[in-house]
Amino acid sequence: MTDHQLSADWLSHPDLMLLRDIATAVLQLAAVDDLDSFTLPYPAAAQRALDALVLQCLRNGARPPAGVPEMVHWARLRPLGSWPLDQLPVGLFDGGDRLIDRDSCRPSQLCHELAVHGHGDSTGRQYDRLVIEEAFRACRDASSPESYTAFRRLLVERPVLTAWDWTDVSTDLFLDPVRHVIEEIYAPVPPHFRRGGTYLCCHRCLVLLHPVGSTAWWCERDQCRSQGGAPHGRDLDAVAVGDLRQLRAPLRQFVTGPGRAEVALEGELRALGLHVEMWPGFDAYDLRVTFPDGHVWAVDMKDWAQPAFLGRSAAPVPRRPPYDEACWVVPAFRVRARRDYLEVYARERAERAGGLRLLTDERLIRAARMRLAGERGPDASIAP
Prior knowledge:
This is REase associating with pPIWI RE domain-containing protein. It comes from Streptomyces luteolus. InterPro entries: pPIWI_RE_REase (IPR040828), pPIWI_RE_Y (IPR041191). Pfam families: pPIWI_RE_REase (PF18154), pPIWI_RE_Y (PF18156). By secondary structure, the chain is an alpha+beta fold. It folds into three domains: about 10-115, no CATH class; about 125-250, no CATH class; about 250-380. About 40% of the residues lie in helices and about 10% in strands. It has helices spanning about 15-30, 45-60, 70-75, 110-115, 125-140, 145-155, 165-170, 180-185, 220-225, 250-270, 280-285, 305-315, 330-335, 340-350, 360-370, and strands spanning about 160, 185-190, 200, 210, 215-220, 230-235, 245, 275-280, 285-290, 295-300, 325-330, 360. The strands form four sheets. It has a five-stranded mixed β-sheet. Strands 1-7-2 form a three-stranded antiparallel β-sheet. A two-stranded antiparallel ribbon has the order 3-6. α1 packs antiparallel against α2 (about 45-60), α1 packs across α4 and α6 packs across α10. It starts with 13 loop residues before the first helix and ends in a 12-residue tail after the last helix. Mean pLDDT is about 85; it is low at about 1-5 and about 120-125.
């Protein structure tokens, strides 16, 4: 196995499964406390992950972490490729990949992806998927695709709700079929999001920022951080806003984050004069783009830190509503951050995907401009 080729069964590597268990433990620890401080007892999953890591280190002749705090210290400061794990697939992780962000002490997006997708079961039903499926079912039973679209936009455009926002959402008739879902997925905001008596939202992606140190703020979205410091958005006084709610973390990571990219892409395509339908056919795919000559593109936006996991999850875009060409799209910053991103995706792409192409959002916009200009070659196409 070389840096350029993962083995066919790399998802079942014991060391990758161990990292998945450590990522799961990190998320559990983060859910009950700040990751830079701990109180006993630790969650059982954290102790099990530590025991397995210690055993593997001893087998490899390496000094193991002395306890859960040191394991978390590793997750924050040691790139995954430097861990003493001899069966970790070569070339899977980039040089800077860590489970915990160094500055904020919060789980990285890769940590979330390992916990959700790193277990070899790409069809596993996870929380975010269950939520979307339940919303789909409720809106379908109500024969209301408009309600489903309103629900998806809510998750993308309003990840944080003040008491006043909650009243507004509660009286939106379009959201009636999914009222029970909304009440479950918006949770009270933990106090560690507050500095003094204030919460602060990110102006770019609308989620709550995490206070870091005495003055700084950190955005949990990789794409936002790639653009520099988090721009300050809504300043929320803890007393004035009443009961503050936010989407649960898996939905912020896997629905709100990609959804922000979807809405941005929608705006760029509409600015070119194209007709764009969002989440058509009860979210069969993300964007249905119609050109003046009636030609239709189907686009699914993905925003994953790990391209190998994305490749293994690849599947054909559903054929309904009908389209002429289809592709998956990833934000361009992912490829700038990891130059082999598209190559790794293509190499690991599941056979069932039938050669499904992955483009950056910038490449998709260029292709749309070229097609509008009358070109019909491969550069004006999104399908293989």
